[in-house]
Amino acid sequence: MNVLRKRIAVPMLLTMALGLLLSFAVTDKVAYMTGTYIYASPDGGGSLCSEMSPCSLEGARDKVRTMNANMTGDITVLLRGGTYSLSSPFELTESSTIHDSGTNGYNVIYRAYPEETPILSGGQSIPGTAWTLHDGMNNIYKADVGSLQTRQLYVNGIRADRARGETFPSGFARTSAGYTLPSTGSFAGMAGWDNIGDIEMVIFYQWKSLRCPVASISGSALTMQEPCWSLLAPATTAAYPTWVENAYELLDEEGEWYLDLTGAVDGNAGTLYYKPRSGESMTASEAVAGSAAETLIKGTGTLDTLLHNVQIHGLTFLYTTWMYPSGNGGFPANQAASYVPPGGGVGQPPAAADFRAAKSIRLERNVFRHLGGTAISLEYGSQDNTIIGNVIEDVSATGIKVGFITGEDRNPADSRKIVKNNSVQNNYIVRAGAEYHGATGIFVGYTDHTVIEHNELYDLPYTGITVGWGWSTDVTTAQNNVIRYNRIHRYMHTLRDGGGIYALGNQPNSTISDNYISDQYYDLALVYLDNGTQGFDVHHNVLHNDGTLYWTYVTAIAPGATLNTIRDNYTDIPQSSINAGNTVSGNTYSSASSWPLAAQTIIAGAGIEAGYLDIKDIIAEQPTVPEPSYINAALNKTVTASSYWDASMHPSKAADGNVSTAWASKPPYTSPPWWQVDLGSAHPIAKLELVNRQDNVDHVYERRNFDVLASNDPTFSTYTVIGRQGNFSVGYKQTWSSLVDDPTPYRYVRVVKTTEIVTLVIAEFRVLIEP
């Protein structure tokens, strides 16, 4: 639907040539001098595993099992180019009976044949010949996909959107069981839609992106699916969904798709519908859906027999899916894309490359793209592993995950379960969190001596790197963690209350240093030490932003972050909030246009090192997001308000260009207070900014629960919601902002309190339009 499509989800992916992907195999030619080599190909078979008679991938692994008991050199499995279609994971195992490890200090290496690209794929292709025109008026095509079940579709290398409605739909009202539908508009008739049980409500709650299916609709009463709905608390306090998703009736935007499993739309079950993007010819298009496999390679040992000395080099991992959120449990997200399963505990999206009880594993120069879950995971006693030089792009959940957050991870009874001494370096992570927006680029749970260094993270909906868990100062396994020399930019563009680097819990002898972090969109801080964080030395970082956030936030909220050192950092951001009980010294405030030499040196040293810079070529063109040249259409325009405190806080103070003044409403209130601006003429609105009061008064209720309405009627008898802040306060002295995609020209804009009838204060409200 196109009433309002606000860019709060994921920026449109750029068209990328498939040929570029296929050209990124092994960039270094290897002179094979010693060791043993066996061969696999997508159509291989038998047991010879020679170059002339290659085996299947599983056959090559089985061949290794006959050769690795007492190795005298590396065994290399060379994978010929092409697609290895997997409906279940390729498994590497070390146990009392199965042995896939290297021995005597030598490695079993699975690597791409020189200059070729082997692809491990869980996808189902839909060729151009499968598509027929379904609805000529609306340019919707369809294809028979049989028993396919998926949550992801990629057309010509670009992730397509499941059909969804406008952002912040008006008229929904929350009930204990779900919602009351709007009385007017397209959602008023949802009871007559097809496949009601497939519809999902997507709810953003600050740092969470939650999904819950609809159970039924009777009249205007929409009942949400259990147990998902009960597990969403407290996010169900949101009075409305952020958007409605996965219904044929919502298929009206280019690049959207819908999968009809029942045949309710036109009588044919297993029909995929797609509305092409401008310029796409479906008969010449290549579409692939994530299909059967949640994990593509699974490495599993035991605490007694770790899987060890295995290397994965130069492979491409594509097209996993994860169907759990489509079930009754939905996706009741916790923090960092973990979720609450029925019965309690904690769950996580599966990883394309998943290693447990693994040691001395090396993943190098692989590509992870178009995945329905996480890319790489190390858990359960994994130690001394290296993840280096990989490209991770367009994955639904986390880029790289090291360790996890269960009670056993926190303080295991058996110390062999501790995840320790792992290294994540020189990886390029772009557009993680494409579906589960609370995911982070790199996630570190309860671990000992994890080193995260020289990575570049870009275009993320939430936090760049998160380390630790627990909201507590308790002693856990977390210690000695190092985050250094990373480049993190253009992140936090969808959710809130995160940062470039986010730490949580007591982690003695840990370090955040020499990182270059910039272009954080939403709050809170570029370096964020949350509840209970202790033991960090935060030093020699360069932190650059537009000045509306904190350069660092070291929380005072109990249990506060204490016993950390914040020293010798460089920033052009004037604000910080550092709890008492921390050591602060030598931090430099400077203009980004004149960084001191020491800051310039840090900037030059952050990110991917020279030996791995070529991995960035896998992405044809890094999406650039130039800052538009906006005009503030509200500046010095005619304003009105429901009331004002006194002459010094007149309504005009919120549109005078001076953030040191402010408008404030005056009690008592019989209706929600509001402030309104007349732009003089109607304009399409690109962006909204609300600057909160800049004095020393800190009332959290002033900075939450408001809507921004737009209308061409000064009485607002009809209006469109173009911005919304829920039940979580914008940061003290910070600026709330929101992009708007509704192309309708509006003359009048109003800010109004919603669920709390309390004082509203605005230092400056900007209605930004393009010249």
From TrEMBL:
It comes from the Bacteria. Residues 623-770 form the F5/8 type C domain. SMART domains: PbH1. InterPro entries: Beta_helix, FA58C, Galactose-bd-like_sf, PbH1, Pectin_lyas_fold, Pectin_lyase_fold/virulence. This is F5/8 type C domain-containing protein. It comes from Paenibacillus hemerocallicola.
